[in-house]
Structures are given as structure tokens and as C-alpha cells.
Amino acid sequence: MASGGAPGPGALLCALLWAVAAAAGGDGPGGSPLPGTFGRVYRGTVSINAERVYAFAYSSEPGQVDAVRVYVNSSSENLQYPVLFVVRQQKGVLSWQVPLIFRGLYQRTYNYQEVSRTLCPSEPTPEMGPSDQIIFVDVASMAPFNIGYELLVTRLKNFQLETNKAFNFTASPSQPQYFLYKFPQDVDSVIIKVVSDAVYPCSVVSVQDIVCPVYDLDHNVEFNGVYQSMTKQAAITVQRKDFPGEQFFVVFVIKPEDYACGGSVPSSIHGNVNRTWNLQRTKNLQVTIVPSIKKSVYVQAMFFSFLSFLSFYLGSVVVAFVHYIRVRRKASAGRLSPEDGSGIMASSHPITASTPEGSSYGAIDESSSSGGHQLSSPERGPPAGSDTDSSVEEESDFDTMPEIESDKNVIRTKVFLYLSDLSRKDRRIVSKKYKIYFWNIITIAVFYALPVIQLVITYQTVVNVTGNQDICYYNFLCAHPLGVLSAFNNILSNVGHMLLGFLFLLIVLRRDILHRRAMEIKDVYTLDYGIPKHFGLFYAMGIALMMEGVLSACYHVCPNYSNFQFDTSFMYMIAGLCMLKLYQTRHPDINASAYSAYASFAVVICLAVLGVVFGKNDMWFWIIFSMIHVLASLALSTQIYYMGRFKIDLGIFRRAAMVLYTDCIQQCSRPMYMDRMVLLIVGNLVNWSLSGANSYQVRCIGCGLEATQGPCLSSGVSSCAQWLTMAEFARQRAEANMLSLGCCIGPETSPPTYWGSLSVTCCCIWLSTSS
């Protein structure tokens, strides 16, 4: 009721506006404030001699956030005399010009005649009570002629976002949008999910504190808060502790061009660098804010993870204890099998007692080698004091070529080889050779890990300081931060590598200790049965598994193209060491040395890096790699066929061609090693077929066509099936990490198929095989 009471806030505001207009003394060049009405379109003209000032008044209630949006339009495209709009509020000033100009790559310009901006809202405190607000909008131009304009000021009804409620809106480069969100009482962390049906135009999602002005244009959105680029999906995790006011703005900016998201430049501006274009780039977006996981979930996940891996430790202890009890019982009963590992003394076995101390492991004479049965050796020479036949003295004058039994060139070229033929070297020398693997991989790990850790710490610091989440290619929908880490769960998932790698080392250490004890007591089963036991490669495999966990965790601190090899280098080494161990089991004398093996791994890693850098669009890289792959396969086949006795140098291909000509063309002879020949032919056919298929797919991609299915397979050695499995795992893992839902990386810009160079590992390893 107006009678007998104080006048309302609206009446006071109207009276104030009319008083200001009366004090101005009429419409002059300075432009008297004209009372404005929300929701009404104002049209007029301005020039150097005439400007317009509009005043919009409204009242805010306590706890109510009132946001105002200003829409302006001008038909003029004259960049020399733009229309200037200045909005004055209680706590700040916002200004822009029409046409509004955006700059792209290489100084390309884009102008927009329609501009819409949201004014920074002011929320009155409960102590102040209702407050009256006035907004002045100044319209001016320095043009000597009249320029028309349109002005529309509205109050936003859906400015505050709600939890678990989707909100749809439209934005463009000249019409950005931002909204307010307040944390509920029982929520400490939320995930902002943004989706769109269209990949382009490229957009940016930003989270900023409640500070005016709000940076909502392409050239300044990166000045404050946390931001990330977006094509079809984005997700940002926000924690309450990062915002003292327990509220923040969610800003949506559309970029004037799609280069930042991997898109191309609009065809209409090619060759028109200095011109401007009024491009219509609008994008429909949907934003939903949902609560993130609570701290209790972090604790449960960590506890469950460690408990799961500790169960493996418990199981190993139980197995070791059961084995110990079993061996003790059989030892007390006086019956042990070779699988038990120790117990029978060498003195109780006649063969062991008659074996010379300097003999090699499993040495048998030629008769046993050809017949496949182990026979006891006859006594060499007559007993002492007996007469010697003269014929024996005559036979001693002839050379019986005893070196045949020790010449590796003779032994390894036999048609049928046995384990004893490939384990004739002294076991102590061979064990020291394989221990070099262990010490070398420790050195490699230290020199590799220290710079990696330093670099990822720098990456994480830069992300936290700048707020640029495009630096790291997370799957932001699944990234859960903890402390300074942006994706703690990705790091926690690598604990298994380290814990199980350490358990593997403990198991190997136990086996090594038991083997040494058996050797000390000269156990017959250890000396004369089974395959030679060397643990250097096992130790190296355990260290490699642990380092894979460390470096994979480092990679997942901030995954991107710069540190892509952190996660894959020790994958190569694990797979390579596994293959070396498989081959070393029955070929201990001819396996590769540690130096040549690690050098081969280095070559593979270099090829992988080149594949990441050049393998996506450069056909020459794949041509050169395919040639190297085919030649390496041929050299590898020759080395395997001749069991390491074919010299590896620049003349290997000439000698191989000569053998092929003499044995296959000039005179067709049956291969001496038929089984090896068949397997090698199959392996080469598979490799060459894969190489040809890869070249065809690369040619299609180079011509602008899509690849038929999946990534480009470059090659794969048939004897290394487990290596291809590791490569496929690495590829899928890389794509899962690279296809970031919060960055502009998507299926259209997925990482290059770097892993094509993986298969050459087999060739590099076995080409380094030497005696």
C-alpha cells in the first residue's frame, strides 16, 4: 500500500533517473541518460557529434544473484569508425566495439556485428538488505556520419547452475556465456561435464573465481582460472578448497577458428589474410555439474589396491613355506626328485664322482650326442704300472683332432643339436655375463628416471600455476585429483608394477640362494640335470617391471606427446628381456650380450620416437622403415638358421645371396636344417605381408583416404607373438590416454601409430646375437 508508507525502491530509482536527466539540462552532445527498460530493443544512430546514454535500474534482494546481459548490433562494417559501447556498473566498467574483431593464426582477422556480453553480477550481503543498482550504457562513435545500432538489455533467469541438472544454451565467439555455481553444504568436489553434438567450432571451458571483470573472450579467457579446450566433450573437476567463497563462474568461449582443436582454416579465408569475415559460428552446449567422489572413496580404493597386491605376497610366502616343509619331509625320508632342488650329495652318484672338475655343464661325448643317450665315460688309459702296447704308441703319433669336441663352429653346425652342445662354456663366466644385464639396467634406470621425475614435476607445477589443462592429455571424466596431482588415480594404478616387480625380485633371490646352496653341497640334480640356471636376466626383468611402474606413473602425472616415451621405453625392455630369457634358457652360450641387447633397445626406442614425430603423415618414413624391416628380417633369418655362426657385417647379404645361388638356383639341395627353414619361411612371409599391408594403408592415408581398419600395422616377427601382444596393449593404452575427453584431442586427431617400429625389436635383439 502506497498510502501512509515509505515509497518503494522502484519509485526512488525512477525519481533519481528523472533528477539526473533534469540536471543535465536536455539532450546535448554529451548524451543525457535516458531511462531504459529491460527487454526492450532500442534503435538509434551515433556519430562524433551525438552519443547516447541509457540508464537501467533494478533492485536486488539478499541471497539473490541478478545477472544482466547486453546485446548490441550494428550494420556498419567500417573498421575505421566502429561503434563503441561502454557499460558502467557499481564495481567496474566493461567496454567493446562493434564490429568486434578477433585475431586468429598468422594475423587472420574475423569481425562480428552482433555482440552479446553478460555483466558481472553483484550479490548483496544479508547485512546490507535490499540494494538498488543502476547500469549506464554509453553508445558512441568517432565517425563523421551517423551509424545505426541496436541495444537490448535483459535480466537472466537461469544464471545459477544446479547440481545434477542439465542446462542447454548456445554460444558464439562474440556471444560468450558464463554461469554461477555454488557448492552445496555436503559436497566438497564436483565435476563439470560439458557435451555438444558438433565437433566444431572449437570451444574453451573455463572455471574462474568470483572476480570482476570476468574473462570471457578468446584473447583473455586464459588469464584467470582453469581452462581446457573442447570439441564434443569436456570435464573439469573443481574442489571446494580452491574457492574460499565456495562458488565460481563456469565460462564458455567459442574460438574464432578451429586450429587449436586440430581443425582446418575455413575455406573462405584462404588467400585473404588481410580481409575480415563475418563468420557465423554458433555451438549448442549442455552443461551438467555432478558431485565427484568423496575422500572415503579415495581411502577405500587405496586400501583395496594395496590389500590386493599384498595378497600376492602372502600367497608367495605360503607357497614357499609349503615347499620348504615338503623338501624337509622328503629329505628325512631319503627320497628327493629333481624338482625338489637339493638333497643328494655328489659323492653318492658314480657319474658325478667320475666327472672331472674342469668339465663343462652337461658335457657328453659324440656317441651319446648322436644316439641321444647318456653313457658313462670309459677309463682313459691303462692302470698305472701296466705294460703299454707298441701299437698304442704308434697311434699317439697321429692327430686325432680333439678340438672337434670343443670347436663351436663344428658343434653348432650339427644337424641335431642338444642343450649340452649350446652350454659348453664355464658356468661362472656365463653367470657373470648375465649379471651385467642387472647392473646395466640399474644404471639405465637411474639416468633415465631422474630427468623424467624432474620434468613431470615441472609439468604439474605449470599446470597448477597457469591452469592450462591442455598441457596434459587426461581422460578428464575419469581423473580424480588429490593434493597437487591432477589425476591421482592414474598414478595409483601403477603401484602394482612396483609391488609385483619387487615380489618378483624376492622370488628370484630365493631361487638364487637355493641354487647357490645346492651348488655348494654339489647336489647331483643341480650339477647334472635340467637346464643351466642363470639369474641375471631375471633380476633385470624385475628391475624393468618396477621401473615400468615408476615411469608409467611419471607419464600419467601429465601425459602428452613430449613424455610419450616415458611409459613405453621399459615396455620394450620388458618384452625384449623376456624374449632373451626364453632364448637363453636353451641357448646360454650364444645369447646376446648385455651391451648389444641394450643398444638394440635404444635403436628401437629411437625408431619409436621417429614414428611419433614423422610416422603420421610422412610416407618416406614408412618406406624407409619397411625397407629396414625386410632387410633386418632376412639378416635375422640367416643368423637363426646358422645358429649364430654366420658373421654379421656389411657382407652378410652378399654371402646370403651366394649361398642362395649355389644351394637353390645352381644346384637345388635339400636344406640341412629343414625344421628351421620351414619356420623361418613362414615367419618371413608373415612379416613381408604385414609390411606390404602397412605400405598400402600409409599410401591411402598419404593420398587423403581413410585407412580401412584400425592403425597401420607395420610388421611383426612370427617368433615374437608375445611382443605383438605387448605392442597392441601399448597402442590401446596410448589411444585411451590420448583420446582426452577434456581436450581437443579426439578420434579425428588421435596420436600417430608409433608402435609400428615395435616389431623391429626382435630383429635388433637377434642381430646382436654373438658367441
Question: Would you mind describing this structure in some detail?
Answer:
The protein is of the alpha+beta class and 771 residues long. It folds into four domains: 150 residues, Jelly Rolls; 133 residues, Jelly Rolls (Sandwich), CATH 2.60.120; 178 residues, no CATH class; 180 residues, no CATH class. Helix 2 packs parallel to helix 9. The longest helix is centred in the middle third of the chain and has 40 residues. Pfam families: SID-1_RNA_chan (PF13965). One of its GO terms (cellular component) is plasma membrane. It is a multi-pass membrane protein. It comes from Accipiter nisus (Eurasian sparrowhawk).
In a few lines, what is going on in this structure?
This protein is α+β, with helices and mostly antiparallel strands and 771 residues long. Helices cover 40% and strands 16% of the residues.
- Total helical segments: 18
| Overall helicity | 40-55%
Q: How many angstroms separate the termini?
A: 107 Å
Mean pLDDT: 72
Order of strands in the sheet with the most strands?
1-3-10-5-6
Helices and strands: which structural class?
A: alpha+beta
Could you list the spans in which at least 5 consecutive residues all have pLDDT below 50? 1-30, 270-275, 342-401, 700-771
Number of strands: 19
Radius of gyration: 39 Å
- Main beta sheet: strand number and arrangement? 5 strands, mixed
The fraction of residues assigned to DSSP E strands is: 15-25%
Number of domains: 4
Overall 3D shape:
elongated
List keywords for this structure.
alpha+beta; Jelly Rolls; elongated; 771 residues; 5-stranded mixed sheet; 18 helices; 16% strand; 19 strands; 4-stranded antiparallel sheet
